[in-house]
């Protein structure tokens, strides 16, 4: 089996409403690039990468001639062909590698007639638990804003009723820490018996991070995620706050993982199949975490169904996955896979059992959302369309005003 073609198609899939985060916003849609790797036996493997737009399509197009004739089974050779660690200092291709690795694993699974999780050692769970992933958001159509504690609680209750979530993650760093603390404590009070996690994406100062962490020590927290910037900042918070610390920003490769093992700053590492360069790298990292008694969770970088499938296969095989996974997925209004979006049952999504990743493209949806991307173009992740001229700094002191209702985004 040899690679004969690589195609990349950038799509824009609508969200139910624009979502706010510490660095800006998701502007009511996700921009993702779907990758198809074709082989000489007629099989097509699927991958996915975040954002990029035309630049991502050009990057995959530039890589294609160098991968023609490559055997998808040869995944270690693929890693060095795409993301040689020394060459990577000049041209970081980690996310390109991830998307093509997804597609090669999909091809190998289809060729052998087995699901990807069988290629990774076999599943030990049939479904993966997810957290609710709560955002402050702009209103859109019939979807109301989320800004106040009461609105956040109502939103969390609605998601719990619809999807069965019992773990709730608040994406913060948008409003002043005192307001977000009130929101977070309101969630815990309104949903007794559930568990919680807070993630301001590293924008708090050390003093603010310590104050926030100490103010929630009495709650049933899973962890406090990236309250401040960097491993040293996390270590200082970890020494003074009695809550596990988690990160998805400063432990995203093996050198950083080694640094965290030698001088622990984070107790939980969120593994992202894109950021780490593929599913296999995440499995390796999870084994290191298991050895050194670090917790692991599955991180979300804004997935469609193809990448969600990679997250599910990863979650299926990790014995030390003791935390619910993150996913933006329930904020999507649609998907590009056949059969429509994956469905939650009691806060979980079943692991695909078909060959390869177990998903196929809906060609009509792919064409529809490729055209939508051509119409709307991309958007800057680090800007907020509701605050013209604003941009984030770290530590942040440029908070959104929680007293002002959020207006719909044009």
UniProtKB/TrEMBL annotation:
This is glucarate dehydratase. It catalyses: D-glucarate = 5-dehydro-4-deoxy-D-glucarate + H2O. InterPro entries: DgoD-like, Enolase-like_C_sf, Enolase-like_N, Enolase_C-like, Mandelate_racemase_C, Mandelate_racemase_N_dom. It comes from Actinomadura sediminis. PANTHER family: D-GALACTONATE DEHYDRATASE-RELATED, GLUCARATE DEHYDRATASE. Residues 149-244 form the Mandelate racemase/muconate lactonizing enzyme C-terminal domain. Pathway: Carbohydrate acid metabolism; D-glucarate degradation; 2,5-dioxopentanoate from D-glucarate: step 1/2. Its EC number is 4.2.1.40.
């Amino acid at each position: 089996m040899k690679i004969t073609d690589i195609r990349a198609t950038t799509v824009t899939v609508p969200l139910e409403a624009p979502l706010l985060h510490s660095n800006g916003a998701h502007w009511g849609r996700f921009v993702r690039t779907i990758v198809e790797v074709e082989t000489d036996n007629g099989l097509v493997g699927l991958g996915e990468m975040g954002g990029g737009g035309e630049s991502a399509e050009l990057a995959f197009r530039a890589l294609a001639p160098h991968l023609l004739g490559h055997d998808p089974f040869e995944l270690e050779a693929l890693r060095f062909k795409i993301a040689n660690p020394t060459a990577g200092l000049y041209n970081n291709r980690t996310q390109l590698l991830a998307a093509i690795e997804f597609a090669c694993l999909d091809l190998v699974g289809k060729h052998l007639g087995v699901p990807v999780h069988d290629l990774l050692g076999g599943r030990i769970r049939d479904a993966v638990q997810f957290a609710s992933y709560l955002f402050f958001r702009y209103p859109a159509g019939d979807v109301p804003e989320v800004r106040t504690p009461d609105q956040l609680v109502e939103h969390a209750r609605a998601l719990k009723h619809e999807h069965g979530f019992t773990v709730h993650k608040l994406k913060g760093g948008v409003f002043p820490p005192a307001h977000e603390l009130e929101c977070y404590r309101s969630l815990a009070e309104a949903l007794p018996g559930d568990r919680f996690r807070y993630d301001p994406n590293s924008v708090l100062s050390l003093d603010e991070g310590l104050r926030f962490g100490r103010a929630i020590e009495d709650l049933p927290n899973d962890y406090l995620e990236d309250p401040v910037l960097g491993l040293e900042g996390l270590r200082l918070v970890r020494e003074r706050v009695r809550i596990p610390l988690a990160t998805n920003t400063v432990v995203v490769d093996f050198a950083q993982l080694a640094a965290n093992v030698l001088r622990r700053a984070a107790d939980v590492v969120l593994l992202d199949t894109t950021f780490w360069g593929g599913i296999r790298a995440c499995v390796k990292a999870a084994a290191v975490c298991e050895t050194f008694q670090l917790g692991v969770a599955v991180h979300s970088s804004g997935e469609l169904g193809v990448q969600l499938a990679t997250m599910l296969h990863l979650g299926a095989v990790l014995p030390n996955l003791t935390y619910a996974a993150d996913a933006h997925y329930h904020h999507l209004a649609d998907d590009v896979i056949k059969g429509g979006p994956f469905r939650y049952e009691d806060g979980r999504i079943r692991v695909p059992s078909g060959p390869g990743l177990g998903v196929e493209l809906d060609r009509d949806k792919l064409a529809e959302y490729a055209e939508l991307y051509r119409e709307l173009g991309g958007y800057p992740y680090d800007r907020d369309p509701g605050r013209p001229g604003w941009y984030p700094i770290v530590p942040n002191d440029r908070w959104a005003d929680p007293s002002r209702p959020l207006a719909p985004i044009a």
